[in-house]
Amino acid sequence: MELEELSVVEKAAMLSGGSEWDSRGSDRAGIPSFVMSDGPHGVRRQLGEGDHLGLGASKPATCFPTAGTVANSWDPALAEEMGEALGKEAHDLDVNVLLGPGLNIKRNPLCGRNFEYYSEDPIVAGRMAAGLIRGIQSNGISACPKHFAVNSQELRRQASNSVIDERTMREVYLTGFEIAVREAAPLTIMTSYNEINGVYAHENKHLLQDILRDEWGFDGMVVSDWGGSNSAVAAVKAGGSLEMPSPGLTSVRELERAVETGALSETDINKRAAEVAKIAAATRLVGVGRDDLLTDADAAAHHNVARHVAEGSIVLLKNSAPTADGAAATAGATAAAPVLPLVPGTRVAVIGDMAKTPRFQGSGSSKVNATRNENILDELTNAADRTGVTVTGYQQGYDRQGAPNRVLIEDAVALAGRDDVDVILAVVGLDERSESEGLDRSTMAIPQTQNDLVAALANVGKPVVVVLVAGSPVELPWFDSVAAALYVGLSGQAGASATVRALVGEVNPSGHLAETWPLRYDDCPSAGWYPAAGRDAIYREGPFVGYRYYETAGVPVRFPFGYGLSYATFTYANLTADDTGVEFIVTNDSDVDGATVAQLYVSGPSRSAANDDSTDGANVGVLRPARELKGFAKIHLAAHESQTVRIEFDRYTFRHFDTKADKWAVESGIWTLTVGDNAEHLPLSTPFAVAGDVDAKPADPALGHYLTGDVKHATDVEMAVLFGRNGVAADGKPVEFGVNDPISSWAGSRGFVARTVANTLISREAKVREKTGAPDLNTLFILNMPPRAMSKMTQGMVDSAMVDAIVAIGNGHTFRGLGGLIASYFRNQSANKRIAKELNHD
Predict the structure, then answer these.
(1) Angle between helical axes of 448-458 and 406-416 (0-180°, round to 10)
(2) Strand ranges for 233-365 from DSSP E
(3) For the structural domain made of 568-697, what CATH number should be given?
């Protein structure tokens, strides 16, 4: 039977999940159900149903480095290698659709889920995601990039409205997704929980139809985030294909009624059902019914892949020569060799709880049941025969949960001061509570007890090498006092052995930071309004995100975007440009093999003219950051080798989105092209004449502070000019709570029952976090959840009428709400039985 021959009810049933992780197929049309599973950096194949946050048991799988770490490799080919292994494990664990990668832009370093995202820049995010997608889908399964789109905070993540101007959305927040779609053709894409300018992502026609399908040519399935669907009817109209997890049969009834009343065309139902059926057909080879675990051979091979990826993603942040008294050298005192790599005969004191009890992934739905578990202490100890570097002792150094403990610090200092210690290795970073789905970080600092430890170790008078474990930037108050720092991120299950290989020089660190590290959190452009506590998250900084802000506004940073050192040294020379790209020569000037990341930045006519004292640069072209990354290349060079490198121009190089014309445009004029190894070290530069399709016109002077990137002082009037026709919504608490306000907001309810529920949940989550050292993810999910999600995540036990009754209780109308809840319950049960009977053809 053809799909179109099915009844409306049968086709509508295919547009929502059959369980927590399975789609609903159609036996009559020969369309099987398929399995979806979390897996941005490892397959989390659940053993049971009902848990989507990773708290239940899951089959063992390889835990690869997280996206925020892999991005530091700037190597799409490495991401593709990781994707191939990921996809094979998904295939072997009977997963049809792997829910990843995550490629939302890192708007602010405190976002709790930043470790799952690639970069603050869409070119890096898009290219890295495209590599991973190609690798995953080479196994005959579907990747599913997420969360589409403009999803930048965990607070109120299911009940938040991202208010953003069209140009910033297109150029910064959507371009990464565009690259992934155009270059890797993912079969599936996942929408985000939030609204975008007042319309939920899963029912946003501008996002799903106008941009994703019509402009980019996406012809696959659009799936909601779990519980992220608002209106099933509006989603089908706008281009949303599949609602997950199972809402029971309530959505089926809503779609059937909409077709009967003419509110929805059956043609739209047919389109969406065909998109779901396409995934079932494209990934059919996976559903072979196996229930076994990974083979030992695959587990071992993929552990090695995870190590290889981690090795390519390590960033050397500092590597100074020690002075005569053993402390880090000052600028200019470079006669002695840098402390890294550790040479044979070096005796090391290993200090830090994370050296023995590793942290290599974040918390939440991406958490993987790793097949192996390494730690730095054991890996360094076991490598002694091979490397000649010996461990003379270990001390915990700090309390894992951040409690002050002078005894631990004193014991660590005592070990470090022993005569048989040459180098102090301190492993510090963020704990499990700090980086998690459902919870934003409260500070950019690591626990103070760890800062106290590093400061005390630096006073011992011996070189201190810091290994930094964190999925996102942290403040480093002790940075000037240590000899070397190696940033390993959240490096996956093989991260410890990869770290040791980098420390002893078996691997030459080649990672470059895919996001800017500010000196302090207050320097961040969005620090004054992030995260938004109310409904509206207003992106008032506009396009000045990450390096686009720091480089334009002239704000000093700890590490610029693209920064990374090496045991090798490189020079750049001979930049030339033609109509299709740039060429230059990179030389490895050292005696060791190594790799660097060559980066191409462009400055538009306005910024190019601003560097010319004879012109008024601010009035030459449209508003732009000082420079924008438009291409990069990871270059591996043998000692003293030179290589000619070419970076091609593409559709993203010179374009901007013209909101008045509602199209992409290229400004004619003199642009500046620069090349180097980070956003502040750009030794090569050349002017370049671009023949675009629009003339450079003066920027609107009413943009005021935005013209210089000084977004912190931008006025509401200037912001209104930036936002143009989208306007800016008010940010405040509703007088009464609605179906789309989070349960957490009930803490201020007039109703005793609702107020008690919210405050009890808030108190319980805080107690669990304090007791276990990890966030209570299920409670956080409920607190962030709007009541309307109850009808989407209870497999039909709750429908929209029951949600309305529950909200009435939340607003203090207890008896009216209870009466409506009871009556609606019985009506819902009866209606569900009718639909189930029709689907079963009884």
Answers:
(1) 30
(2) 315-319, 347-351
(3) 2.60.40.10
What is the maximum span of the chain, computed from C-alpha positions, in angstroms? Answer: 88
The owner of tokens 């958490």 is 367
Homologous superfamily, domain 312-511: Glycoside hydrolase family 3 C-terminal domain (3.40.50.1700)
Q: What is the pTM of this model?
A: 0.91
Question: In this predicted structure, what is the pLDDT of residue 779?
Answer: 81
User: Given pLDDT bands bounded at 50, 70 and 90, which one contains residue 748?
Assistant: low
- The answer to whether 23 and 34 are in contact (CB under 8 A) is yes
Return the HEC string of 627-691.
CEEEEEEEEEECCCCEEEEEEECCCCCCEEEECCCCEEEEEEEEEEEEEECECCECCEEEEEEEC
pLDDT for residue 770: 72
pLDDT tens per residue, range 615-667: 444 456 889 999 999 999 999 999 999 999 999 999 999 999 999 999 999 99
Residues 283, 284, 285, 288, Cα dihedral to 10°: 120
Q: Which fold, 3-286?
A: TIM Barrel (3.20.20)
Listed by start position, the domains of the chain span: 3-286, 312-511, 568-697, 743-839
Using the 8-state DSSP alphabet, how is residue 510 labeled?
-
Residue with tokens 């005796």: 347
Tell me the residue type at 673: L
Hey, which bits of 696-777 come out as E strands? none
Exposed e or buried b per residue across 615-642, where buried means at least 16 C-beta atoms within 10 angstroms of its C-beta: eebbbbbbbbbbbbbbbbbbbebeeeee
Contact 496, 375 (CB under 8 A): yes
The yes-or-no answer on residue 225 being catalytic is yes
Which of 75, 121, 225, 799 is catalytic? The answer is 225
Side chain identity, residue 443: T
Q: How far apart are CA 395 and CA 275, in angstroms?
A: 56
Q: Are strands 97-99 and 36-38 parallel, antiparallel or unpaired?
A: parallel
Residues 365 and 227: their CA atoms lie apart, in Å, by: 14
Percent of the chain having pLDDT more than 90? 72
Tell me whether the CATH fold assigned to 3-286 matches the one assigned to 568-697.
no
Per residue in 440-492, pLDDT (tens digit) is 999 999 999 999 999 999 999 999 999 999 999 999 999 999 999 999 999 99
- What percent of the chain lies above the pLDDT cut of 70? 92
